Amino acid sequence: MASCDRRRFITYGLRASALILASASARAACVDPDEMSGSVQSMRESLEYTDSAPDASQACRDCAYFKPVKTGDSCAPCEVLTSPVSASGHCVSWTKRS
Ligand code: SF4
After folding, report:
1. What share of the chain in percent tops pLDDT 90?
2. Domain check: are 19 and 51 in the same one?
3. Which domain range does residue 67 map to?
4. Domains in the chain, number
5. Lowest mean pLDDT among 27-31, 66-70, 79-83
6. Structural element, H or E, at residue 84
7. The High potential iron-sulfur proteins family profile domain covers which part of the protein (predicted)?
8. Pair 88, 41 in one domain
9. Average pLDDT across the chain, whole number
10. Does residue 61's CB lie within 6 angstroms of at least one atom of ligand 1?
């Protein structure tokens, strides 16, 4: 009986961990991909958007099209992708903020 309880405890623990990781991943992604329209998803793909810029000096936070409400926002609308993007993201339309 004790091993059954332990197995159940481990199963619930793993499920809870998976939910926490999924939630953190959704936050890291800034926006739930399932909530984006097909055209927005296509635009993100065609412009090779990624949540993590390969070159930190060309991250969305320093792009002219990134429009945070306040300085330091980790997620803000992008005028090109017409959807929220991560401050640490990047796409091929990156343009240095002047
Ligand atoms: S245009 Fe590209 S690099 Fe610039 S904010 Fe939008 S997604 Fe980021």
Report:
1. 65
2. no
3. 31-98
4. 2
5. 27-31
6. strand 83-86
7. 31-98
8. yes
9. 82
10. no
**94 in Cβ contact with 58 (< 8 Å):** yes
Judge whether 52 and 89 are in contact, CB under 8 Å.
yes
Within a 10 A sphere around the Cβ of 5, how many other Cβ atoms? 9
Mean pLDDT of 60-75: 97
Indicate if 24 and 53 belong to the same structural domain: no
Atom number of ligand 1 nearest to Cα 64: 4
Convert the pLDDT of each residue in 13-50 to its tens digit: 444 444 333 334 434 578 898 999 999 999 999 999 99
Ligand 1 closest atom vs CA 66? 5
Q: State the closest ligand 1 atom to the C-alpha of 53, by its place in the atom list counted from 1.
A: 3
Contact 48, 92 (CB under 8 A): yes
84 lines ligand 1 (CB under 6 A): no
Q: Which residues contact 75 (CB under 8 A, 6 or more apart)?
A: 30, 31, 84, 85, 86, 87
Question: What backbone phi and psi angles, to 5 degrees, belong to 9?
Answer: -60, -45
